[in-house]
Design brief:
Layout (H helix, E strand, L loop, with lengths): L1 H13 L17 H26 L3 H19 L3 H13 L3
Helix pairs in contact: 2-3
Length: 98
């Protein structure tokens, strides 16, 4: 039984296989948005937290509110799905890149 499985696996490994298809031309950006989101989102949260604490300790409430509004707008770009992809496609379309 074990010998039969070994022989079958050896024959299967030595059998010729179909040639691999060449990779598609161009740059593969399939996971780029996820990579950017995973890389910059925690960094963004740390920076927002530190700056917000600074504004609160210095009692600059107006700048704090302005900063929080800006941080929420930028946070939407990082955390809402497909915003990066849609924006990138719109910019590419405006530049004439297909």
């Amino acid at each position: 039984m074990i010998l039969k499985a070994i022989v079958e696996n050896a024959v299967e490994a030595l059998a010729p296989t179909a040639p691999a298809t060449p990779p598609p031309a161009g740059v593969n950006t399939a996971g780029l948005a996820d990579f950017l989101r995973k890389f910059f989102a925690p960094l963004f949260l740390v920076v927002v937290s530190v700056v917000a604490i600074f504004f609160l300790f210095t009692r600059e409430i107006t700048r704090f509110v302005q900063f929080i509004i800006l941080a929420v707008a930028i946070g939407v770009i990082f955390y809402v799905p497909n915003v990066i992809e849609v924006t990138a496609k719109a910019i590419a379309g405006a530049l004439g890149i297909k």
